[in-house]
Amino acid sequence: MGANTTAETLALLKVAQSQPDDIIKTFSAQAWATAGLQAYNLEAPSLKLWPVLTPLRNSIARIGGGFGAQANWKAITNINAGNTRAGIAEGKRGGTITHTLSEYFAAFRGYGLENSVTFEAQYAGKGYEDLKALATLQTLQATMIQEERLILGGNTSVALGTTPTPSLVGSGSGGTLAAGTWSVIAVALSLQAYLDVVGVNNGAIGQSLAIASATVPGQITRTNADGTIDTFGGGSAQKSAAATVVTTGSTSSIAATVANSGNGAVGYAWFWGAAGSEALGAITSINSVSITAAATGTQLASSLTATDSSKSALDFDGLLTQAFKSGSGAYIAVQATGTAGTGTPLTSDGAGGIEEFETAFVNFYNKYRLSPTVIYVSSQELINITKKVIGNGGAPLLKINANINAQTNGIAAGVVIGSYWNKVVGREIPLVVHPNLPAGTVFFYTAELPYAVANVTAVARMLMRQDYYSLEWPLKTRKYEYGVYADGVLQHYAPFSMGIITNIGNG
What pTM does this model have? Predict the structure, then answer.
């Protein structure tokens, strides 16, 4: 090798590369990204791909200063209970009026979640992710999501009771059921139980109902971070008695229905099979199901104890529960059962509106002289409402905005109903998709009252003994432990201003 060693070395490398040997093969590219002597092109930090959707929590006022065991308030709802006439005779005094007074209370509840990071996980994440900060963020957001569920559907006082016994009608066609005696059991579900079964996609992505692995919660026993145990109702009613029907042939089906009294159920779980071995086969948001095949779930109805598990002593009453509660005065409408498995959908009024909405608005005004300010719906109901409004007299009422400076103006395909006009009071009401509202349920919410001397600055509020706070617990193992907590209660001063249409068929 001469004086120009660099040039000569490069020349030798070129010769070696043109004649592969065992050494070159050893350092060849690997079949997967993290093997061999190669750089790992990993973006840092991790991507945060989970939704945090809490529209009610974001909009409802939060007030500090709560104390004691419960919030208490009184409301005068009638200033002339006997409707005493005002006319008087000469020289005489007027009639005496009396008022109606209602008393309310709501117990404070603590709520929160915990998370942890092991020492080893923290070591491994150095330079890539601050795992301790991430643990606190996730716990805070998860707590907010659970609080949203509580605000909408928490239930500490309304018992669903025992689910009515199903009524069954067998058919020799329409399915693949074998000949035999089939036993069917139904379980009514409140919001908390319904969301657990079907998956909520809030704080997560990609969840959907998977009957094969779904589980209807009965009484829940939870081991907490400190080793203590809590037992509470998971949100399901007591299961019904079993009903049976005989089918013949190999193409049979069964139409199953239960009575829906509007007592708080937003869905139903259905179990069927041989008597004593009824397995979970369907979850519906209406009070019926069309059974066309053998159940594919693994949960058996026998796993649910014969107790009503609809209430939880760890919840406060959410908006739906306060509306469903007896004596609330809220507008509750239950769609007719209709055809099993199909139900009764909302009805177009033929004039760009929905009959059931018009009926509700008349009720709100005639009884309380008010109008809802928001209509919360599921994605299913928004699509169905849009179809009915646009397809039955609503199309000529569409407004198209055109830019006069544009060379061309096009119309985008697809139209959605973003608000609904209350004809009774002349008010436009937004339609808002709520992430936790089940298909088959529409919720009318009123954020303001048209009463000049109401002394109510917020119709609903979260009264907090202690708002969100974070704890990093003392070390007891080689693990950092975090908790995010809050303590408060949902107060709704005018439950009569809410409304619910439930048991709505998809169509």
Answer: 0.88
